[in-house]
Amino acid sequence: MQYVGRKIYFDKLTGNVLVDTGERAGAVVETTQEQDFRTFTTLAERVPDTVGSLQLEYGQDADMFAQYQYRVDPATETIVWSLTPPEAPLEQVKQAKVDYLNQECFKAIYAGFTSASTGHQFRFNEEDQVNFNQQSTLFLLKPALAETQWKTEDAGIVSLTREQFIEVVLEAGQHKQEQIARYWGLKAQVEAAETKEQIDAINW
Question: Do 151 and 124 fall into the same domain?
Answer without folding.
Answer: yes
